[in-house]
Amino acid sequence: MTPIDQAQAGTHPYTREMAMIHRIFRRESRLMTTLVAAAPAGDTERATVLAGAWHLYVLGLHVHHTGEDELLWPPLRPRLTDDEAGRLALMEAQHHALDEGLARITGLMERWATDPAEETRHVLVAALHEHHDLLCAHLDAEEGTVMPLVAAHVGPEQWRAVGERGLADTPRNRLMIALGSILEDASASEREEFLSRLPLPARLLWRLAGQRQYRREMRRIRGAAGEAPPTGTAVGTMAGTTADAATDAAERSGASGP
Predict the structure, then answer these.
(1) What is the distance between the alpha carbons of residues 213 and 250, in angstroms, rounded to a whole number?
(2) Is 65:21 a contact under the CB 8 Å cutoff?
(3) What proportions of the chain, in percent to the nearest 5, are helix, strand and coil?
(4) DSSP assignment, residue 78?
(5) Is the Cβ–Cβ distance between 187 and 44 less than 8 Å?
(6) Can you list the domains of the chain with their CATH numbers?
(7) pLDDT, tens digit, for every residue of 166-193?
(8) pLDDT tens, 79-126?
(9) φ, ψ for residue 43, nearest 5 deg
(10) Torsion of Cα atoms, 139 then 145 then 146 then 149, to 10°
């Protein structure tokens, strides 16, 4: 199975939005592996920064998957055949397997941040590689076998509820970072469409302050060469949101500032 490609993503707003969110998780899990592997031996400060980014990544993935398990799959399941319902059961089982891996990596991260020994880092990098592979296989399967069912059977209110669940755990001062993480890998047309759904004050906030906040966070997490979004820091903040829910978030950010 392959992830949603550009043509598929354009066929339905749900699949298009999910593809944009999934890109964040694919990217951030890959980059976290690279950044940990490149961390200088014995650098406690750097290890602590990356461990903090990892915790935010875990939060994001947890919020995303919990929204699916509690708000998306239940209203979908009664509308499915037995074979189709089996696809949801597989998604839930994969979520559980990912959770187990996340817990193991979190323990390794905490140990490494306290004592950044080379041996711990090597074990951690191997675990991060394994997580990235498992995550990508899960996202590919979800996009290829479940999102078409979501597009066919889930109504706008149910879809919006998933986004609102993600927003409920979004600190206001990280909303612009969240927006940047979504826009980083978006195509020009996706970026234009997404921004067009935000109210004018939110678009102005992004252009005048949000992008600067985002660049600072990039450099803090990815280092001097980091002209890309910070690993793990924004993943959770808008995971699962729809463009309409993102509008609500942006309006709130306009009131609170970056």
Answers:
(1) 15
(2) no
(3) 80, 0, 20
(4) G
(5) no
(6) 13-253 (1.20.120)
(7) 777 767 877 888 889 889 999 998 898 8
(8) 999 999 999 999 999 999 999 999 999 999 999 999 999 999 999 999
(9) -85, 90
(10) 150
Chain centroid, CA 147 distance in Å:
17
How many helical (H) and strand (E) elements, i.e. helices and strands, does the chain have?
13, 0
Q: Which of 145, 142, 210, 151 is CA-nearest to residue 182?
A: 210
How far is 197 from 177, CA to CA, in rounded Å? 17
**Whether the Cβ atoms of residue 186 and residue 246 lie closer than 8 Å to each other:** no
What are φ and ψ of residue 241, in 5° steps?
A: -80, 150
Torsion angles phi and psi, residue 170, rounded to 5 = -100, 110
| Alpha-carbon distances of 175 from 48, 55, 88, 209, 256, rounded to whole Å | 23, 17, 30, 12, 10
pTM equals 0.81
Report the interhelical angle of 82-114 vs 44-67 (nearest 10°): 160
